[in-house]
Amino acid sequence: MNRRLLLGAFLLSGLLIIGCGQSNKDSRVNLSRGVGSDSLGDNIIVRPVGDFISALIGEGLEVETVKTKRNSDGIMVAQISVYNKSTKTRRFQYKVNWVDADGFTINTKTSVWLDYSVAAKSSATITSIAPNAKAVNFKIDTRK
Hints:
7 strands, three-stranded antiparallel sheet, alpha+beta, four-stranded mixed sheet, Immunoglobulin-like, elongated, 144 residues, 19% helix, 2 helices
């Protein structure tokens, strides 16, 4: 009986750790399921034990910093630094959408899904340049 109680306490503490681990600190960056670290909301122990352990150790990307600036031509540049907490290379696609002062997406041929990968236990930086000087903000989406 004590073993069951101990195992239950271990699993509950793992759930609390997973639930508290928010890896995205900037709303402009959307790490989709399978790219970013799983949260309690999408890993409620219905997966096999291997997936539970994987989530417990925090596999996935974590956003480290998001920076923007204007270059010498007045064009906005965005730089997103991520860290791969996984023991495997994380491959995904991303797309950057630029937004004007009125909140409208700026239509551009460069807003397409691009392949990207981050080596295990390492950092990487995604840099994107706005299509014109009208851009005042951006949003980046990811997918597996």
